[in-house]
Amino acid sequence: MKKLLNTLFVTQPDVYLSLNGENVVLLKDEEKLGRLPLHNLESIVTFGYTGASPALMGYCAKNNISLTFFTMSGRFLAKVIGESRGNVVLRKSQYRLSESEKESAKIARNFILGKLYNTKWILERVTRDYPLRINVPKFKEVSKHLSLIMNEVKKCENLEALRGLEGQGAVSYNGVFNEMILHQKDVFSFLKRTRRPPMDPVNAMLSFAYSLLANDTASALEGAGLDSYVGFLHRDRPGRASLALDIMEELRGVYADRFVLSLINKKVMSEKDFYKKENGAVLFTDNSRKEFLKAWQNRKKDKITHPFLGEKIEWGLMPHVQALLLARYLRGDIDQYPPFLWK
Predict the structure, then answer these.
(1) What are phi and psi of 26, to 5 degrees?
(2) pLDDT one-digit tens code per residue, 19-63
(3) Residues annotated in the binding site for Mn(2+), as ranges?
(4) Looking at the domain 90-331, which fold is it?
(5) Which residue, of 98, 246, 292, 310, has the greatest Cβ tally within 10 A?
(6) What's the pLDDT tens digit per position in 166-203?
(7) Domain 7-85, what architecture?
């Protein structure tokens, strides 16, 4: 278990939550794993199917402690929440700010800054680790360009202009993405981003990773009480989880891109894992899709120190922490939304 932002995250499988006095008790096969006072908690987030006692759910509802259930893979299941707390005030604030382009731009600016900062440090890390295998001057030039764009983003107050700056950064970053593929170059190469359908194995993996990240992020936002369909950078569109795409921007490179690159460079995926359809679309085989999902779930268990909180957490909790931080900003608890800044 892990306590962050007055939220208890229970990530161990097969843990049952029960009530003892004014404490939540974590049980596994009738063995007590932990005990925590409930008066310090605002919410409990648990992953798995084992569940919680009716007594604990009743206590949480009565005392305004939200209790949220996810599957082990991160899919949102259900939420128990007290009648006086609810999500009404939070969501009304989200909808009100989303209606204002000026207020939306203030929030969107930090999503984009997070994305640009993280992509810059992906390149800096590769430059440091593989100086003999890449074009270092080219990487340094792109890194410098990303820094210049970040300076423009900090001053920008217009959504359309912010999208233009984000696009410039994406073009620069994609221009060196292929050089970060260090092995199996005869099979895996990246010329440009192709989505529907993906036209090569790299794009097939990127599209799948982005879909998984979007689903994880949307679930995290729902768990935090936010509407994942109402965004600030990405505007409303029927059927699109716009806020999930917003939060994803800062995580896309460090979470999904680096994951895909690791599968290629460590030779986890190979040519046999894909097939091409008559229209040129490249798809996973059934077995390779299962292996990709298995590797994705294992990646979510890796630990990283969160730069804003200064605490070690699992990668899989990152969307949940960012969702909670955004909720705190929208409630007025913090001055601005702190993007995830990796280095």
Answers:
(1) -100, 125
(2) 999 999 999 887 888 899 998 888 888 888 788 999 999 998 888
(3) 166, 234, 249
(4) Four Helix Bundle (Hemerythrin (Met), subunit A) (1.20.120)
(5) 246
(6) 999 999 999 999 999 999 988 899 988 888 889 999 99
(7) Ribosomal Protein L15; Chain: K; domain 2 (3.100)
